[in-house]
Amino acid sequence: MAKEIDINCDMGESFGRYTLGHDEEVMPWITSANIACGFHGGDPHVMRRTVELALRHGVAVGAHPGLPDLLGFGRRALDVSPQELKDYHRYQTGALWAFARVAGTELQHVKPHGIQYAMYERSPELARAAAEGVMELDKALILFALAGTRYEAEAKGVGARVASEGFADRRYAADKQLVSRKIGPRALISDPAEAVEQAVLMALEGKVRTLDGQLIDVEVQTICIHGDTPDAHKIVRAVREGLERAGARVRPLREWFRQA
Question: Residue 43 belongs to what domain range?
């Protein structure tokens, strides 16, 4: 049986007069869109247009709630309580839910944006709050969590419906965390062929090679390519085609993911 896999990408991160990403070129090649909800990027008009674009291409819609840090694009850690985190996520997810509902679809998933993954590794309380917040909205929602991390374990521990995520365009450390962007270009994979190799290795063999050359286990159901990565549209297309050539079935999680 062919391995099922989902491809997700962060979308709708433009704001006002500023355009970010390659949404029109990327959307035909992904299966799940993580749509910014206004805190780190996006605005009401961008949200509406991005939902409509996703539906035109049969792409599942998910909320991508960020920290209230537009200037820092949600990539700076903030001192927030678990309840504040829930409130931020609920506010943003509810807004996107309204746009999705009017467009005739429902939300498939929630994926926290930016620095939050790293914050959850340092704070199990925040990790649990993110998972509990999704369950309080709708237990059918899928929560994305970085595969093999404390965040993933905490989310599953409270009963959330968790899809484990891998990244085709980022390098990994030995602890299964993404290498910090602060180290510069080495943290990113910008060569489409290299991104394909990493995606296929994760999807079909359950492994990823770290920055220092180790081969580690990582089981994923969804693979991300960042929308603001240089030439993201070329990387996404290459990854989609590479996965299918390797024998994977690339489909939205809503069509095959059954974990409760």
Answer: 4-255
